[in-house]
Structure formats: C-alpha cells, structure tokens
From TrEMBL:
Its cofactor is pyridoxal 5'-phosphate. GO terms for molecular function: pyridoxal phosphate binding; transaminase activity. One of its GO terms (biological process) is amino acid metabolic process. Residues 32-380 form the Aminotransferase class I/classII large domain. It comes from Achromobacter aloeverae. It comes from the Bacteria. Keywords: Aminotransferase, Pyridoxal phosphate, Transferase. The keyword Protease does not apply. InterPro entries: Aminotransferase_I/II_large (IPR004839), AspAT/PAT-like (IPR050596), PyrdxlP-dep_Trfase (IPR015424), PyrdxlP-dep_Trfase_major (IPR015421). This is Pyridoxal phosphate-dependent aminotransferase.
Length: 392
C-alpha cells in the first residue's frame, strides 16, 4: 500500500456528506425525509440559463476556454460586482474556476506557504481547513462567540497572530451561522491583517443572499484582498461547478499561469450558460428567490422560538440557522442521528464546523419550500416534546 502524505491524517471528515448518505438510504427504503442538511438550494438554474447552455452546446462551443475564463464572462462578473456590491474591478483580475472549491484551492496554492498558519473563526465551513492543509498550511481556528456573531474580530487577529501566521480566511455571510461581519469591524480587521503584512481570503459565496441591508463587497474596504465567489448558491447552479476568484492586479498573471496547469479551465459550456445569469430578466428571478429565502428564514426562526429551540444570533444572510441545543439534553451528534431516524428530518451536527460550540449546536438549512418547512417544524417540535417526556 502506498504511504500516504502525513497531511491526510489531519483532514476533517465532512459530516454533512455522511448525513446525506444516511438520508438517501432512508429515502431509498421508502421513508419521507425532509432535508435541512446539505447546503444546496432547491431552486435550479432559471430557463434563461438552461437555454443559453443549449444554444452553446448546439453551436459546438464546448472546447477549452482560456485558463482564466471567457473574456465576456470575466467582464460580466466585474460589472456585476460594481453594480451589485459597489466594487470596481478590472476584468483582468477575475479568474473563472471550477466552482468556489476550485477557487479556494487555487488561492491557497498561490498564497499558503508550508507550515504557515491561516486564521479562521470557529465555527467555520470544514472544507476551508482542508484546503489549507492540502496546500501544506496549518489552520488556526479561533473560538468565536455569539457576541461577535461567530465571526473573527480585529481583536482576535491582534491576540492570536503567531510568528507562523500569514493570513486569515473569512466568510461573510457565513456557513454555518448565516451571519455577516459588520462593515466597520471588517475594515478594522482588514487593517490589522495588512499591518502584519498578511493576506485576507474573503469568502463572499453568500453575499448575494443578504437580507437586512444592501450587500457591499469587502473589496470596497481593501482592494488587495482575494475574493472567492460562486455560481452555486445565489445563482442556484450547484452541479455546474463554476466559480471565480478576484485577485490583486499584481498577482493575477501568476494565478492565471497556475490555473493553466492545475485546472486547465472551468467547464466551458457552463461558462457560456452563466452569461445569461446577468441578463436583467434573470436577475429579477434571483431577486425573487432571495425574497423566498428570506421568508423561509423568518418562518423557521419564529417556529424555533415557539418550540424553545434557541438561536443565539439572528442570521442576516445565506440560508442557514445555527441553533443552540444546550437546553435539550442531547449532544449534537446524537440529536442529529435521532432527529433523522425518528422524525425524518436531516440537519447537520455542529461538530462539523469546529470544536468550540460543536457539541451543543445544529445547522439547519432552509433550502426547501415553505410547505416542507412547515412539516419539518411540526416534526422537530414533536421530537423536542419526546425529549422532555419523563423516562418511565
């Protein structure tokens, strides 16, 4: 048997994938399972996008693109960032990638030195740590709190920056908490990183799904950060595997050269189709879907409040609710297992997102319609009642 690289011992198991497998097995056995687990919208690509794909396929536009992506798509993304998020971006800084995962892998390969620390909050999306590990780096999880909206703060950077630390990885809005970093706090944090000659990897995958105020990109605060985004979540194209990086101008050529070897190019047909995402009629569809997600969030928050399932921080974006189980008498792994097998509702245990709060938290994804959410709330409420019944 080949000897594995030592880094493989540190890779985190992605519990949501294991949960998804269990839920699928139960469904195959005839159970009605409501999935609030995997972070995949129930919406799919709008007709305009599908039609654009069909036209490109019929026209034979399926060959390799340039490593950085189609020029028209890079221009469309740059224009979108200016009109929607207030950031002026030269299209030459946009690198189209194989999903946000491809973007993060490429960014880490370009920036993370062997043994270097990359600071991120606990809780965080677990794959972020694995991308850092795959590049030879060392994830530095800093426990956060509800008072800090489960995000990194400037004070965290000051107090936890070590000699081996070289950068930070932030998601705003966040997976698993759905919370954003306030602009003033984010500006201070970015200054602290810059003063230490560090880099910031900024995950803006859920930026389009912001509910409380008009979203602004972190690029409006610091133009030298590296931004990761995707067509999967807001644009509801998960399986199309298309994302992008926005990088500082002085490293764009180097990152493009790396992409040519590591990725060749992002799926070309998907790139042609994605151009339709930015048409006025298509953008209206996405705005309507964002409002649907907001309605789902509000419904589920109210339902949880009525069943005494505590949510320490109201999520302002993405499609997740991060709930506290401290008063339920079960750890998150047991809670998740029993909720799935006894009530037919899949939700992810907090241990997937870090040790600080993992054993007493759950992530619920409101990625199903209101009718199914209502049924899920009924089932969750009934399950919680069984936990309160005295043992015979």
């Amino acid at each position: 048997m080949p000897r594995l690289a030592s880094r493989t011992q540190d890779f985190l198991t992605f519990q949501v994938v294991e949960l998804f497998k269990q839920a699928q097995a139960l469904q195959a056995a005839g159970r009605d399972i409501i999935s609030l687990g995997i972070g995949e919208p129930d919406f799919t690509a709008p007709p305009q996008v599908v039609e654009a794909l069909e036209r490109a396929a019929r026209a034979g536009l399926s060959g390799y693109s340039a490593p950085a992506g189609l020029s028209a798509l890079r221009e469309a993304i740059a224009h979108y960032y200016e009109t929607e998020f207030g950031a002026r971006v030269d299209p030459s800084r946009v690198i189209v990638t194989n999903g946000a995962s491809g973007a993060l892998a490429l960014a880490c390969a370009a920036l993370v030195n062997p043994g270097a620390g990359v600071m991120m909050p606990d809780p965080s999306y677990p794959a972020n740590s694995n991308f850092v590990l795959a590049s030879g780096g060392r994830p530095q999880l800093v426990p956060s709190t509800a008072a800090k909206r489960y995000q990194l703060s400037a004070r965290d950077v000051r107090e936890n920056w070590k000699p081996h630390t070289q950068g930070v990885l932030i998601a705003s809005p966040s997976n698993p908490t759905g919370t954003s970093v306030a602009p003033a706090e984010l500006a201070e944090l970015l200054r602290e990183v810059r003063e230490r000659d560090g880099y910031t990897l900024m995950d803006e995958i859920y930026l389009g799904l912001s509910y409380e105020q008009a979203p602004r990109s972190a690029l409006t605060l610091d133009d030298d950060i590296v931004v990761i985004n995707s067509f999967s979540k807001y644009f509801t194209m998960t399986g199309w595997r298309l994302g992008w990086l926005i990088v500082p101008q002085d490293i764009a050529g180097i990152v493009e050269k790396m992409a040519a070897s590591l990725h060749i190019c992002a799926p070309t047909l998907a790139q042609h189709a994605a151009l339709a995402c930015f048409l006025p009629d298509t953008l209206k569809v996405y705005q309507q879907r964002r409002e649907a997600f907001r309605q789902r969030r509000d419904f589920l928050l109210q339902a949880f409040d009525g069943m005494d399932l505590r949510v320490p921080v109201k999520p302002d974006g993405a499609f997740y609710i991060y709930a506290d189980l401290s008063n339920q008498g079960l750890d998150s792994t047991t809670f998740s297992h029993r909720l799935l097998h006894e009530s037919g509702v899949a939700a992810v245990p907090g241990v997937d997102f870090g040790p600080a709060h993992g054993h007493h938290t759950m992530r619920f994804a409101y990625t199903v319609g209101l009718d199914r959410l209502e049924e899920a709330a009924t089932r969750i409420g009934a399950f919680l009642e069984t936990l309160r019944e005295p043992a015979l």
